[in-house]
Amino acid sequence: MGQLNPSFEGETVIITGAASGIGREIALQFGDAGAITIVADIDEEPKDGDVPTHEQIRQNGGESEFVRTDVTDVDQLEAVVEAAREYGGVDVMINNAGIIVPGSIRDIDPEAFDTVHAVNVRGTFFGTQAAANDMIDRGEPGAVINTASISSNLAQYDQVQYDSSKGAVRMITRGAALELAEYDIRVNAVAPGQIATEMTEGWSAEAEEKAAKDELIKPVPLGRAGTPEDVAPAYLYLASEGAGYVTGEMLQVDGGWQVF
Ligand code: NAD
């Protein structure tokens, strides 16, 4: 099969939540494609103890910087966008940082609810705002890509606060796409299915028991869980010129899970 290999030579890409998991692989693939990558995360070290993402990109011959960023803090989001100005300004903003805290609608406490929504919703919303305003101020086109989820469309047991946050990510993507189109800023989302990362390791044991009741635990048509390597190319596609007429879209990368 052929390869889609867009080049991002000289372009600046910010990826939030890029220390570990899906975000790390997105950053590595943009680095391989020639982009200047800014790794924006609360942690510098990956959860699995590997080499920090920005160092790995440099070892691979790319240019990369780590900017410690808590996406729940709007000032820090603006600061990481400002940091990209050193490289000519952000061309692609990837709002990927996300957390999951399982729990039933019957007993989730307001603090846990706010924590999940602060990272997943507020972080995505204000990350989009910070990047878009900077692109508009510089008079440059750009792309924003948000990490949604299979949960943007489908409910699962004990994930109501995560599902609601990812439903919001889907509509932030659409609303922002509508408003920012006139500035030539495209806004899209990638919706991964079950992807093997530290995040899924954390909750899956308990969740599996509940999932016996869950309609969604039917086999994924492609017959396996996904990997970050399966997901990252979707971001490169959506950021590329080849997707120049694609905006407001949520691209599912889930092995066919959503067809059930
Ligand atoms: P992960 O836990 O491996 O990585 C998440 C990264 O986000 C970590 O590096 C973490 O430090 C960072 N982060 C957490 N809170 C942050 C904050 N406040 N500010 C900045 N960074 C922060 O998780 P993952 O599986 O790679 O998930 C990445 C994204 O993909 C998330 O938005 C998640 O909801 C989404 N997603 C994951 C799956 C899956 O099956 N793994 C499926 C669908 C969607």
Heteromolecules bound = nicotinamide-adenine-dinucleotide
Radius of gyration: 17 Å
Largest sheet, described in full? 7 strands, parallel
Q: Estimate the strand proportion.
A: 15-25%
Number of helices: 7
Quaternary state of this entry equals single chain
**Architecture (CATH level 2) name:** 3-Layer(aba) Sandwich
Structural class of the secondary structure composition? alpha/beta
Q: Which CATH class applies here?
A: Alpha Beta
Order of helices and strands: EHEHEHEHEHEHHE
Structural features, described:
- The chain is α/β, with parallel strands linked by helices and 260 residues long.
- It has one domain: Rossmann fold (3-Layer(aba) Sandwich), CATH 3.40.50.
- The chain is 41% helix and 15% strand.
- The chain is built from 7 helices and 7 strands, in the order E-H-E-H-E-H-E-H-E-H-E-H-H-E.
- The chain has helices at 21-32, 53-59, 74-84, 110-138, 160-180, 198-211, 228-239, and strands spanning 12-16, 36-41, 63-68, 92-95, 142-147, 185-192, 250-253.
- The chain has a 7-stranded parallel sheet with strand order 3-2-1-4-5-6-7, with helices on both faces.
- The longest helix has 29 residues, at 110-138.
- The radius of gyration is 17 Å and the shape is globular.
- 44% of the residues are buried.
- The mean pLDDT is 94.
- The site of nicotinamide-adenine-dinucleotide (NAD) has 29 residues, from helix 1 and helix 6.
